[in-house]
Amino acid sequence: MAGLRPDAIQPLPTVNDLPEAWHAAAKVSVSEVLGGRSLLELDLGEQSLIAETAGHLLAEPGSPLTVALDLNRLHLFDRDSEASLTAGSDAAIQTHYM
To answer: Which domains, and CATH codes, for the chain?
Structure first.
């Protein structure tokens, strides 16, 4: 299994330094401003994701939103035990791109 923390999922054009292959079309379920940050609950196909971004971003439920997934920050887990496959390791998983 794989996972991304909410701050590794950013709406465009908030980030523009990630490859276009890492962009995905999502649909907003809920958006909430919390002080200087915003949380967005997104539907991406049959998956539900939460994105956290700086600033105030209110989006109407059902509205489309393109997001960038920072795959350099991908976390991997064992499907059966749900244990982190990188736990105890000082080395982060890195996905290199050009």
So the answer is: 2-76 (2.40.50.140)
